[in-house]
């Protein structure tokens, strides 16, 4: 059961991690960018933040799952460190740009605050995980990385919840506002229970 759940997580992480590639193949006005106002689209800083966010967010989601599971880690510790460095740099870039973009998010103040908080928690939990391993605290490092990846995984859960909410409420605007919170709060709670269940390294 645990293995099946992990496989499902990996498949979603790979699929949504590669999803930003649609911006290479699809004309931008037919993507999410079509929902943004001309003022935002003409804002160079926003455009840089957007592409930095989706490229590095995609990388962090695509590679992050590989870090969990002691078998691989114990066998290939150097690869674990290399993937870890790439993951951390990607999260730092993607989270800072996400926080900035959060101020311009669709849906108004409620969704803005939801995305900004998620971005801040993503940045903080990842940074704390790095500080912990640099102090030799393996268990704390693992626990904070579980929180970090739970935040990264919000990119997946958002894209699952949003169509569900839209089909229940028939209200796309309010569904978007709700999903700005629903995409990450349950993930963080799941991370909390995983950590509570496994207080030692796993
Ligand atoms: C976990 C923290 C994350 C936060 C706080 C966050 C925040 C945001 C925000 C604020 C927007 C713009 C929304 C708007 O203007 O209405 C956005 C869009 C986007 N984000 Fe993220 N994001 C996160 C993670 C990720 C990850 C890991 C990916 C990797 C796939 C990703 C991919 C995208 C894409 C592709 C868009 C454009 C919308 C679309 O095409 O569906 N995000 N994000």
From TrEMBL:
Q: Where are the transmembrane segments?
A: 44-65, 86-103, 109-132, 144-162, 174-194
Keywords of this protein's UniProt record, alphabetized? Membrane, Transmembrane, Transmembrane helix
Name of this chain's protein: DUF2306 domain-containing protein
Gene source species: Chryseobacterium joostei
